[in-house]
Amino acid sequence: MSVEPPKTYVVTGAASGIGAATTAYLREAGHLVITVDLAEADVVADLSTGAGRAAAVAGVQDLTRVVHGVVPCAGVAGLTGVDPQLVVSVNYFGSVALVRGLRAELAAAGGASVVLLASNSITAQPGWRTEVTTACLRDDETAARAEAASVDAVMVYPATKAALAYWVRRECVKAEWVGAGIRLNAVAPGLIATPMTDQLRADPQLGVFADAYPSALGRPGLPEEVAATIGFLLSDASSLVVGSVLFVDGGTDALLHPLKPEGMQVNPIALGVLNSMAGVATKLSALRRKR
Ligand code: NAI
Question: How many domains does the chain have?
């Protein structure tokens, strides 16, 4: 294993969870990391808006003209009470805009790597809003937000993550990306113990499902385990990996789909989880009404 010379990486959502662990992992390896987040970052910017995304790109460009890798970790969970439109704008458009905005700096590295944060909710959670995904992939934020507005955020989150995975698949082979020496890949983590999943556990309706999906390892993942996988995909050790979506989920996807990953397919285990979700949500609402 060779030690790589110091490189410059950009990590969004770096103030918390997987973004913070990825930043720590890369800095420990001697790399420079430019962090982007709503607070406590080198570049403070709100990735939910066009103006905020432009400010994030400009803020990075003020600090460097060469970027060896981008990891857009900033994301919003589809929890009760969360605006589903915000989920669309941060998760998909906030990620893709930053990667596109820094394309010239990535090309200038003469060999660069981008790792997007998808999620195994794409294959583990059935019934999500495909119309949101297709609008994202058409680059139509207004339409994607409008589609999202008609359902709960929980059905929008996997749709935004699927859009990121499909964007990687579609774009990676193009001249502007692989042709410019920029590899595009994604990771699809399962349940990882971060502030995001702490919020899921505290959710009045969805909290009971935090541990409902099976894991072959029988435990949640750690942000450091996802960071190590991202570190591999950023490194030259993964030089042949282009357009892959790597599940980092302790075997959840393999348990649900033993033969191949399947997106919208309603698998019996996932269907059981979904049915119990609906049942418990109804009971909780009934209890609340009684009080
Ligand atoms: P987290 O909640 O711990 O961290 C998310 C970070 O994103 C926070 O620092 C937050 O300030 C930042 N952020 C949110 N909205 C922003 C905005 N508008 N502009 C700039 N920054 C913003 O979340 P976690 O768990 O570390 O997740 C990181 C990524 O991994 C997310 O994209 C998430 O969807 C994805 N993921 C997480 C999983 C998990 O189980 N924790 C599973 C699969 C995917």
Answer: 1
Q: What is the DSSP string of the chain?
A: -PPPPP-EEEEESTTSHHHHHHHHHHHHTT-EEEEEESSSSSEE--TTSHHHHHHHHHHHHHH-S--SEEEE-------TT--HHHHHIIIIIHHHHHHHHTHHHHHTTTSEEEEEE--THHHHSTT--HHHHHHHHTT-HHHHHHHHHTS-GGGTHHHHHHHHHHHHHHHTTSTTTGGGTEEEEEEEE-SB-SHHHHHHHH-TTTGGGTTTS--TTSS-B-HHHHHHHHHHHHSGGGTT--S-EEEESTTHHHHH-SSS--SS---HHHHHHHHHHHHHHHHHHHHHHH-
Q: In ligand 1, which atom is closest to the CA atom of 196?
A: 2
Domain that holds residue 99: 8-290
Task: Give the CATH number of the domain where residue 103 resides.
Answer: 3.40.50.720
Confirm whether pTM is higher than 0.90: yes
Rounded to the nearest angstrom, the distance between the alpha carbon of 102 and the centre of ligand 1 is 20
Ligand 1 probe mutation, 36, 92, 194, most atoms within 8 A of CB:
194
Catalytic residue among 9, 92, 157, 213: 157
pLDDT in tens, 130-182: 999 999 999 999 999 999 999 999 999 999 999 999 999 999 999 999 999 99
